[in-house]
Amino acid sequence: MNGKHARTLFFDATIFEIPLTGVGKTTLFLYEACNKIMPEISFVGFHKGNLKNSYPRFLKFVQADNACWRKENLQNLVPNLGLAIAHFPWNGPVPFSMKIPVAMTLHDVLPLEISGYFGRNPLRRWAFTHRTQQNISRCNTIFTDSDYSKKMILTKFRVKREPVVNYFGATLEIPENSKRGNSNNSNFFVYVGGYDPRKGIMPMLKTFIELRVQKRIESRLIMTGSPNYFSDELRKLLIQSEKAGFVEQRGYVSDSELVDLYLNARGLIYLSKYEGFGLPPLEAMHVGCPVVTTMGTSLPEVCGDAVLYVDPDVNQQVANAIEALEKSQGLRSLLVEKGIKQARKFSWEKCASIFLSTTEAIEKKR
User: Fold this and answer.
1) Parallel, antiparallel, or unpaired: how do β-strands 141-144 and 59-63 relate?
2) Superfamily of domain 188-343
3) CA dist 139 → 8, 27, 67, 276, 318 (Å)
4) Residues 6 or more apart from 330 whose CB is under 8 A from it?
5) Gap between the Cα atoms of 190 and 202, Å rounded
6) What are the respective helix, strand and coil percentages of the chain, to the nearest 5?
7) Where are the domains of the chain?
8) pTM, to two decimals
9) Alpha-carbon distance 242 to 250, whole Å?
10) pLDDT in tens, 259-304
């Protein structure tokens, strides 16, 4: 990257029309890191709905008022701009016949892997596959979040060139003078994420409740994230466990609240079977919170040897890991130390450097 010529990055800003979590946060952190490395780039985001948050001044936004806004607004602004590229950070959709190079971040193709995701309607699976293939075919390059996601994309779709793996960094800032791993006197574990069957919510709750009933642990489980009561069994289980004082649901929490939870929790319990990346375990390790998780999909890439791995379908493995974290300060301290070291392998500077060098290369080829 020489940074000597003007560049314009157009991006689909619809991800910023919803509360800033997950993909929205990582997109914002990526662009901020790019701006620090190469501040001469112009960032122009297109959207149709209202933006839900405030954003740094280096990001410019254009709000459209027509149904074909993705294509028509880009096409109208492209002439006489010099080098330019369009980025679709949220798995598309990519318009047909773009006049500038296109990059898309395809975070994962997990719907094709999760049993029962499309119900009993094969047309839903076909529609997802067809739409994803169209988006891939319209791109000059594909970014994805992990080697696992790259492998799945190559297995299930036709690509012009191999996807570029670009790992995220942590999005949480740790306050100065915070003591990471300060879990000696805490009395809770934490779960972070949406309520989704693939996240292992049911086995986590059942095991945790069993441990409390058997008096093998004394901690509570604090659950954060958007509540989605996907079954009557889940709803009843949560009602009963809250009445018993075993579980507390917090819903969405601010970043500062989440950092405080990580700093003081005995551990993060994250029994997900399917992940394209796995931001909660990375951020827990970054802050200094021990992690119990699974070997599913991309999680070993993120967590390395710095966590306790369990099979979420083997109740005894999960129970033993939770009990061990509750009772052993030595184990918690070891995992905190290893987790902080592992999390340092993932940085936004690295992520932005890969993004900038890859996009510059495809711009120059046009």
Assistant:
1) unpaired
2) Glycogen Phosphorylase B; (3.40.50.2000)
3) 17, 18, 21, 20, 42
4) none
5) 15
6) 40, 15, 40
7) 7-169+347-364, 188-343
8) 0.94
9) 11
10) 999 999 999 999 999 999 999 999 999 999 999 999 999 999 999 9
